[in-house]
């Protein structure tokens, strides 16, 4: 039997500037924080450096101050780090996600109760085109 805790909530927040903040961008920020590098974070997430850089640039432009700071390469080998704003954005997002999960506990339990048993088959698919009675 599936339980409410088995269901995942994926929060996406549409910012006024047209940017969508969701778990993917939050995961990217966390990967940059862990790897101290945009390119290493991109590799870890299976995306191109360019895609990661564009997402980070989009986020940096969306908030009052940058969420990621970069350092130019060379002898110091460059790198990237999460800023205080980046840490704050991650914390706010994770708190909002937890609040959403808490608020939806009863609904998730109801939805879980409606699911087919694990390993079993659900109701058969009915093709309305083959049945004139539908």
Automatic annotation (TrEMBL):
One of its GO terms (molecular function) is DNA-binding transcription factor activity. It holds the Pfam family HTH_1. InterPro entries: LysR_HTH_N, Molybdate_resp_trans_reg, WH-like_DNA-bd_sf, WH_DNA-bd_sf. It comes from Thalassospira marina. This is Transcriptional regulator. Residues 27-87 form the HTH lysR-type domain.
């Amino acid at each position: 039997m599936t339980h409410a805790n088995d269901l995942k909530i994926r929060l996406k927040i549409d910012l006024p500037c047209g940017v969508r903040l969701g778990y993917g961008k939050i995961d990217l920020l966390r990967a940059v924080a862990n790897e101290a590098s945009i390119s290493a974070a991109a590799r870890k997430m299976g995306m191109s450096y360019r895609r990661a850089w564009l997402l980070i640039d989009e986020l940096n432009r969306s908030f009052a101050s940058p969420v990621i700071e970069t350092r130019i390469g060379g002898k110091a080998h460059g790198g990237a780090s999460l800023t205080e704003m980046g840490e704050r954005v991650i914390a706010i997002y994770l708190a909002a996600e937890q609040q959403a999960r808490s608020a939806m506990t009863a609904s998730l339990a109801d939805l879980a109760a409606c699911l087919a048993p694990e390993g079993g088959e659900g109701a058969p698919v009915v093709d309305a085109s083959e049945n004139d009675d539908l």
